[in-house]
């Protein structure tokens, strides 16, 4: 009897209606989610707190964050079968984990020619793992999702899965929208004369030579992306025959959440379904652990320098000579230094008395601490946004990819001084002391903080409203630009101009042929009498 009651109770609870206005969201990460996961985890948690249900799908990664704990969140973790070791950057095991090629990134990460081309071969591995699992698709289809939130970097197959499920897709782009899939998304315009290309380090005001170089960078981005689309589309058609290709999927996005803010990035034209959500994770600081708080407070008026270069700074992989130069430079500061370094420091390195090493630290809580004076950062976009939001000037040492562009943004706004991986200890010391001693850096950082926070709604509120709006309107078709499906020829009226030129050529040709037949025009007429 009690068993029957329990079964009936479970049945009633499982069929109970969702809260009014609640939706089902599907979050799809690519093979490598990395720091991109921070934003979408935060957004997923907030959606769950509002009564929505979230299915959170990701792949095993080199940094495995704990599962999201909420009754409205279901986590699914996939892994690439790399038992034979054929997939680059994935551990050779049955359930392989993606590993960042840190050695390559440290060596060649700032060169456009240093992009490891074998990284493209992770795309078919990701696609095959995600799309060939028919049981997974059946399970997801039964949920009845309203919107798919797709972490867009190398995730064309996530878009294909969302399309196969009949779910409108909203993409999240964690990098500057100057390269990659973002430049193909939702009709977003990226004219090379005004929008600096990925890794160009240019501003939005370029001279003739810079525009020429920028055009070349933009063309290279197009070429590389089309090769990636080719690889992804082969897998998509193998598992989902008849599916739209990658470019069509990107063009028909219901929206794009762009990790940017105009207080940092350059202003540009955005379609109505592209929403700036930069610093979506930013918040006021929480109290620090007691030992760390005591270290910070003990710095006195001099304050603290925060050093954090993200997951790229592993002591076992970062150049040992750079570690030595950093510690030597920091030992000469009157400030205390908190360094976030993963891995094990070489025993030959002596840690100065004013330096505290942490394997992990709550970055925003330290940035927002009143004793923090400077942020020494690699200039990942998340960290750059956070340092502006908390009003802390920076010393930038980019390591790879978009970090060079992001550091250029901060330097041009007078919020940072840039170093390079090859900088000497003296140059490091000079950069840090320049930012510490020149009050203009702190003044501009305070102004940038005020501008970033002076918004009608927060980035998180905008993101939540937008994805709910897409769910309520069945994909927000009213926000999609007609120009998103136009080719380059159509978008710039090159066909119209070609037709006009052809018509003009015909008219000129006819005019030239007709003129000799009637003779040259007579400007003066003779009225001589005949005898």
UniProtKB/TrEMBL annotation:
| Catalytic class of the enzyme | transferase
Q: Which domain of life is it from?
A: Eukaryota
Can you say where in the cell this protein is located?
Membrane
**Pfam families referenced in this protein's UniProt entry, alphabetically:** UDPGT
What are this entry's molecular-function GO terms? glucuronosyltransferase activity
Membrane topology is:
Single-pass membrane protein
What SUPFAM superfamilies does the database record attribute to this sequence? UDP-Glycosyltransferase/glycogen phosphorylase (SSF53756)
This chain belongs to the protein called: UDP-glucuronosyltransferase
- Report the source organism: Cloeon dipterum
